[in-house]
Amino acid sequence: MRIQDPLELFRFGQAFKALQLMSVESKYEDVERYFVCLEDFLEKNNYKISSRVFSTTVKPVWMEIARISTGEHIGANRKKKLLREMNTLLPTIRAESEGQKFFIVVEKRYSTDKLLNDICSLFAKDVFANLSEIAQFDIKQAGKCIVLECPTAAAFHLMRACEGEIASLYRRLSGDANVPNNGTWGDYENKIRALPNKPPDEYLEQVRHIRRNFRNPTQHPDKIYDIDEVQDLFNLAIDLINRTSRV
Q: Considering only CA atoms, which of 162, 165, 157, 141 is closest in space to residue 212?
């Protein structure tokens, strides 16, 4: 996935039109940035055929114009050549653009920027930084899945992250690194309930609620989420992980 700035499209269109309308009295230093804009856009956006056509049509004229003396006008002949080659390039770009698709992200309850680039800020201070590497990975993936509207995949990652933190809590409270029974969420939960220093009942009830009503149906699988449901689940997961860090 590559983030597309809409202004790139605007600048590309401006640059293309500026070169088509270039005056005979234009100077190289006045139009150089337009050549660079075209070349960069075609390369960055995977216009492979258009890039090759650009290299064999417009690029030679660009290089010819680049050799003129500073302050010298481009002149009628070079303008004519450039316009001819730009018109040769245009149908290729149009044809290749038919295979390009841009998707518009619809804002969710959490901003797209938070979900993609700053998901740690959605947790209490220092909580995300102290999570396991796998839990951090799953939460970041869940954020991406919410942005791209893959809610069931997001739920799967959220429940993995929560389950990992329940296992970490058991090891922290018990001092035991051994995996109980099959090492499932339920196994760790039962072991935690039996500890003399077990967490408050309110917390344990929250753990049980999320396991029975979300983790199990997601894992087995018995549940398909819509985008609103998974954002509700994201809220629950953030709260559970924050509370786990304070136990």
A: 162
* Cα separation, 207 vs 239, whole angstroms: 11
Q: What's the CA gap between 23 and 6, in Å, rounded?
A: 28
* 57 vs 143: CA distance, rounded Å: 44
**233 and 128 both lie in a single domain:** yes
CATH classification at residue 198: 1.20.120
pTM assigned to the model:
0.78
pLDDT in tens, 140-178: 999 999 999 999 999 999 999 999 999 999 999 999 878
pLDDT given at position 1: 66
pLDDT single digits (tens) 69-115: 888 999 999 999 999 999 999 999 999 999 888 888 899 999 999 99
- 134 belongs to a structural domain: yes
Is residue 103 in a domain?
no
Residues 143 and 67 grouped into a single domain: no
Strands (DSSP E) along the chain, which ranges?
Answer: none
Domain membership of residue 136 (yes or no) is: yes
Residue 135 and residue 234 in one domain: yes
Q: Which residues contact 70 (CB under 8 A, 6 or more apart)?
A: 27, 28, 29
